[in-house]
Amino acid sequence: MKKILLLLIALFVFVDTNAQSRSTQIYENGLVVSAEVYASEAGKQILQQGGNAIDAAVAVQFALAVTLPRAGNIGGGGFMVIHLTDGTKAALDYREKAPQQASRNMYIRNGEFKPELSWEGILSVGVPGTVDGMVTALERYGRMPLELVLQPAIDLAKNGYYLSYSQARALNNRSETFQKYKGSKKYFTRQNGIPFKEGDLFVQEDLGETLEQIARYGRDGFYAGPVADAIVKEMKQNGGLITHSDLRNYRSKWRAPVIAQFQNYELIMMPPPSSGSIAITQILDMMDDYALSELGHNSADYVHLMSESMRRAFADRSYYLGDPDFYDVPKQGLLDPKYNHARMIDFSMDTVTRSSTLSYGEFSNNYESHETTHFSVIDKEGNSVAVTTTLNGSFGSHVAVSDAGFLLNNEMDDFSAQPGVPNSYGLIGGEANAIEPGKRMLSSMTPTIVTKNGKAQMILGAAGGPRIITATLQSFLNMAVFGMNAQEAIAANRVHHQWLPDVLYYENYGLSPDTIRLLEAKGHTLKETSIGRGHIIYIDAEGNKSSGVDPRGDGHASGY
Length: 560
Ligand code: DON
Known about the structure:
Bound molecules: 6-diazenyl-5-OXO-L-norleucine
Number of helices: 22
Number of domains: 2
Strand order of the largest sheet: 8-3-2-12-11-1-20
């Protein structure tokens, strides 16, 4: 029976590939939009069994750990933003932490920063936060027991699921790297050397057993007992740093969300160690003096104004942002509209401000101090959840825990391993984001819930490193300013600027040749690339839900 169900879902994946046609569908009850069909279906199943949005979100997170091994995870971390119909707004930080034995210079050899050490292999791993995050979210806001919301993931691991074309390709592309690590070789390569192909049944027995441990023992099923032993053994055998005490002491953390106002909208966002909420608020403030809809979507002037705002916000990010438990992030200053308007004092509509002449802004002293995945969930009552979760790079550190069946993150690369030297996303950071034991690395993940008149109207976010911030910003503006529906908003071409490198990125066919010429005339250097992969749920005034599934990926909407 389970095999038949899996086949039906697989058929659905291969036949129903037109995201645009799905977009017009309206769902009256619950809706889940994630990067992958089995995970969206798992969330919907939980909603239909009477679970609320938090139950469903936890089910989706665990399902993605099985069906999207390159980003979904139990060996990584993430952020969850919640808005309940009773007005509750909450933000859960289950970001990884540096192990106690981590040190500022751990990636320096003979005075030289070795980026390969923070990007791949055992030293790149931060203490995973996902399992504690899920247990914590469920305990406070869920209705269902952990074992019930874990069941879809356990079934998918033990019975297997059919690989999509892009999943098979992603596994094959990393095959050489997986060969280097015992566990990864066992789980993610074929012993007979035959490449994976679309439609292959992918079974993960050991992962299923790990998930069963979590179902039975809650956080202790991961941070203690045989799974913790397997993690520590992997560390010891390969020169890694994570100990039993790192695992035992890991706790996710409820934080006060950052709330931004833009026109009649309220944006509920993840505070530091996410940098996205601060950057988006700053950019919106900087753009606020201009009649955006009159400038026109992706006109040269609109792109110029937006990228100049992005440039300034990312310059501030590099200097001021880090884990607030370790560094006094000047949130109040950065979120002050007066400061952000003043930041644009040297803005000219005709010409760029070169990044080399621009640094972080100064406050008056009045203030005290390339793989991730996003999903959005709403239940039939209107409770909503936005989650962005990651291993950092595609397949994280590429180290899978032997005998426990899951990949570990390479999130340590999100620290500024050497102030002033760019990380893998070209991001430069300083003291605020230097490595310290027990500290969380700065993130760009920006799960966001937008409300209007107190009701959730948009649930959005994206993957894509620093492009998460700019992709989420543009998805929001596309709906709020340009009146696009969710599918149009997510599909529309995007641009990106992150201060350094001093480049304005745009997507293939995203800007017309004459727009590009106009931007070059203002002094921009343009480069073509892909910018983020996001997912949106939009809720209209009657409570009808529709989806925005990013055509840049394999995403799927499951609603009823
Ligand atoms: O937390 C962050 O900002 C990064 N680790 C996110 C990485 C990412 O989005 C890569 N993906 N597509």
